[in-house]
Every structure is written in structure tokens, then in C-alpha cells.
Amino acid sequence: YYLGEAPHVSVLEGNPHLAGIIALGRGIGGSLAAAAALRRLRFSAAVDLFYNPRSALLLRISGIPVRVGGSRGLRRRFYTHLAAPLPPGTSAVVHHIRALEAIDASGEEALPRVYLTDAEREAGRAMVDRVLGGAERRVIVGFHPGGTWPAKRWPSGHFTSLAAAIRAELGGAVVALAGPGEEGIARSIAEGSEGAAAALPPMPIRDAASALAACDAVVANDGGVMHLAVALGRPTVGVFGPTDPRIWFPYEGAGP
Q1: Of 99, 188, 201, 254, which is the most buried if we count CB atoms within 10 A?
Q2: CA 196 → CA 50, 160, 248, distances in Å?
Q3: d(CA 135, CA 59)
């Protein structure tokens, strides 16, 4: 089973490697509901990949006998086993796989995967086709120009110039995806590109995944959408600012 914050955990729906998904709602009520679900399922072990105070306390009150977590701060007392520290620059993927060793499990480094239904893929293609006006194009590139931190955002003017180059050199078109509150960034790229790009509105994560799956490639700032594009098997260019790509982009040179 996988426990994650609602609504983002919906990205794992349809994953054949999971027996189920538990959505964690906001606030104390969400934590208590998740703890009740964990108790009903009577897990023998849990691995906390987030290591924050809320996740550590949630596993503690859930009555799970074996709890693996990190060694930061007082929260370490809520775990029964601590994940071994790793050298600086270790990728998040390796970091998570190594945490499994505390429960005598192991895994191999691989690309993440998100699984869409045929209906979702068709809906994504129809959405992209609609926003681009239905014209035949050689290539479609998805942009995600947003980001939680302003320092992680490539200037929107650079995205606009790239959209123009994609049209001029590849005969292609661009769709720009926006997160909540970032509609203006995607719209400015579309308006400044003289028809080379179109903006998509903010949408639930699985709808965004369907739109990305309809693209031939993706250019995204460092963030969740970048990882989503990789998990969909799209050739992806990650644009990095003040974070370490060794940790957050362990995909370079990997195939679908």
C-alpha cells in the first residue's frame, strides 16, 4: 500500500504493483482518518520516505510495529528502525530504495512509472488537439514553466523563445501547463509566442498527466511535473536552478 497526500496520491491509481492507496487529507481530521485506515489494515511494517513530523507521528499512532524513518530531530524517536545515512548527492531514488534495507527488502534503481487508462490517454490527446486548434503538426512539446520557488523558474521569456524555435525548426507546436496560481505564466508564453504555443488551464494531476502523455517531449522546471513527464515515458528536459540535479534528476541517459 502507498500512503500519500490527497489529491496528489491519485497519480498512483492503476499501478499494478500496489494493493491499494490511502489518501491523507488535511489537518488533524485527515491524520486521524488515515491512522484509522492504517490500523484497520494491520500492517506489519511501514517505511516513511518523507521523514517529517506529521508522517512520523502518524505512523506512531497507527500501531504499526516496525516503522522505518530518518534520523533528523526528535521525530527519530517515533521510528523503530532508522534508515542509514547516505553520502551527499545521492539521488532520491537510491535514497528511497536504500531505506528498504531496514526491513530486509531490496530493489534496483529504475525509472518511475505512472499508469494511465486508454480513456485517459484519448482524453489527453483530445484536450491537446483542441487547444492547438486541430492543425496537423510534426511534433508537440509540453512546457511546464511554473515552480514552487521563484528561483527554480526559468524566465518565461526563455520559454517563449524556445516555443518559437520549436515552430521554426521542427514545424511543431507547444502546450504550456500551469499549476494553480501560475495561469499568468502559461498565458504570457502563449501570448508572446505569436501562435507557436497555447496555454492549458490548471487541472487535476491525472488530467495533466493525460495531456503530457499526448506530447512528444516535455521541457519543465525542476518539480513534480518534470518527474511526472519522466514517469510517463516522455523525453524530458529538466531546467534546474538552486537544487542539485544529481539528487533530483537521476534520469539522464535513461530510456523509457
Answers
A1: 99
A2: 40, 8, 30
A3: 52
- Check if the beta carbon of residue 227 is closer than 8 Å to that of residue 112: yes
CA distance 152 to 145: 10
User: In this structure, what C-alpha cell is assigned to residue 237?
Assistant: 528536459
pLDDT of residue 252: 84
Radius of gyration for the chain, computed over Cα atoms and rounded to the nearest angstrom: 20
Q: 10 Å Cβ neighbour count for 145?
A: 28
**And the C-alpha cell for 158?**
526563455
pLDDT for residue 253 is more than 80? no
Residue 24: the pLDDT is 96
Q: How far apart are CA 210 and CA 4, in angstroms?
A: 21
The whole-number average pLDDT for the span 209-221 is 97
Q: Specify whether the CB–CB gap between 179 and 152 falls below 8 A.
A: no
